């Protein structure tokens, strides 16, 4: 496994890999990350490994998608450990550019997705610059790597929707593959930010997956009122002193709020636990009604 | 020569052409147009023909880059005549999509270039939506055609700079080739809008290339003051009742205004003649000074 720093080196390394594996039609699978790899990332790598002859992973803590300098500064960086984990999971090539490689002097271009996909939930909480920064860097990475498939986790559900929209809209010739949220044994969704939680904070944070599980269970038991489901979630969050930034019940593609769960719904939560902002979600389907099919 | 309407048909037709010509490494040259082809467009086709095995020309009157509905409505459309001209000049494939093919229901993505390249001159006159619309559609067309080279006329000098910036910034793997402005025998820069000029308006419009020629001549004679060069241009424009929207002397890459011509300068004019908005420009170099090399 090799690590390259520039787009020119990346292209050269890809050409070399293509030459050695199924020349001419080797498929490239791509996992973009901000490093601090955990098993969620590695599950994306394993999915890429199943689909593609060549697996590329990028590590780039993209400054333009951080709307808080303190969050950018605190974001964990551990490239040597990441390289070992990536190699173990079957990555062929790491692309780990410096910021100046992706945003050289005079850089002026932004890719934006308009509308509720970027204005609501994370967009409302973190500002529109967050998704502009993310969409722009993902466009640049997809054009640099030119993969057949690229892998994104369902944990960042809204990011996944924005990427799918942008790739379809611009006609970027990459298939976007959504992968399930990876969780620790205690239920907490894996996130690079989890290492910043104290033991006590982590205990409190577990109320988030428990609230999602409770909502899922109530729905399975026949509850369809979002007001009732919201109360059930809040009854679990409140004792853990978690006051969510949002606790949303929205359609899973357009992110339109709903009052009753008649079809699939995305239940998404964002909350600060201590200094750490966590997000999680579940896609809910209503229990089949007796009188319906 | 074939005309295709969808991105899927385009990809299929390109694969077929690649199969018949220099399989594996046929170079694709691309000329994006809004149709109403004239010899300016055909000079771009001839340049593409020299560089590439396969020449693709697109015809798409892009609604998102028109900031005036009347201008969009009045823009000439003559696809049958365009196809004959394109075939005669050596185009292999015309891509002429409907608006709904490029902007389907739910479309939400914009590519923007920030800063003076888009805020000044045409950007100030036509609004920022103009260059956003242009940058977005050119990105989409380049990703659809995936050409090695794409050809743009120097007449739209600012458009060329925006495209160069965006292609470099996003890392679109296409080389942008700038081609000289094509002119009629009387000096008027070729434009699809020229057909809307009456004979009398056309006569007045000739003051624009004459003003640029006068500025060029004064500069060759040693004049370096922009104030003096501007007066010389205005003395030619005023009798033709041309009150320019802008008459700018700016650096040719950053579009920074200058007061004296010490290095290469872009002199750019936009003016309405009757109902028709015309643009033209010249790249000026100062006369070599005796005491300098």
From TrEMBL, chains A, B:
InterPro entries: Pantoate_ligase, Pantoate_ligase_C, Rossmann-like_a/b/a_fold. It comes from the Bacteria. Its main location: cytoplasm. Keywords: ATP-binding, Cytoplasm, Ligase, Nucleotide-binding, Pantothenate biosynthesis. CDD domains: PanC. SUPFAM superfamilies: Nucleotidylyl transferase. (R)-pantoate binds at residues 65, 159. GO terms for cellular component: cytosol. The reaction proceeds by a bi uni uni bi ping pong mechanism. Homodimer. This is Pantothenate synthetase. It comes from Leucobacter luti.
């Amino acid at each position: 496994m090799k690590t390259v720093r520039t787009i020119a080196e990346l292209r050269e390394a890809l050409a070399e890999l293509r030459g050695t594996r199924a020349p001419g039609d080797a498929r490239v699978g791509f996992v973009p990350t901000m490093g601090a790899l955990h098993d969620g990332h590695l599950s994306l790598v394993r999915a890429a490994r199943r689909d593609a002859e060549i697996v590329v992973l990028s590590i780039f803590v993209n400054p333009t998608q951080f709307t808080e300098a303190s969050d950018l500064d605190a974001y964990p960086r551990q490239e040597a450990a990441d390289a070992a984990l990536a190699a173990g999971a079957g990555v062929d090539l790491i692309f780990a550019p410096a910021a100046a490689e992706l945003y050289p002097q005079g850089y002026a271009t932004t890719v934006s997705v308009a509308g509720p996909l970027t204005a609501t939930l994370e967009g409302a909480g973190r500002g529109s610059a967050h998704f502009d920064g993310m969409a722009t860097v993902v466009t640049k990475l997809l054009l640099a790597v030119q993969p057949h498939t690229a892998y994104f986790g369902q944990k960042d559900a809204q990011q996944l929707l924005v990427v799918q929209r942008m790739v379809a809209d611009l006609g970027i010739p990459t298939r976007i593959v959504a992968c399930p949220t990876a969780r620790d044994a205690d239920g907490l969704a894996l996130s690079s930010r989890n290492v910043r939680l104290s033991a006590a904070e982590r205990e409190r944070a577990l109320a988030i997956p428990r609230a999602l599980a409770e909502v899922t269970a109530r729905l399975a038991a026949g509850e369809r009122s979002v007001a009732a489901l919201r109360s059930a979630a809040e009854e679990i969050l409140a004792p853990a002193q978690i006051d969510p930034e949002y606790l949303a019940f929205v359609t899973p593609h357009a992110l339109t709020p709903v009052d009753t769960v008649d079809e699939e719904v995305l239940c998404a939560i964002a909350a600060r636990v201590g200094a750490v902002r966590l997000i999680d979600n579940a896609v809910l389907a209503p229990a089949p009604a007796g009188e319906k099919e």
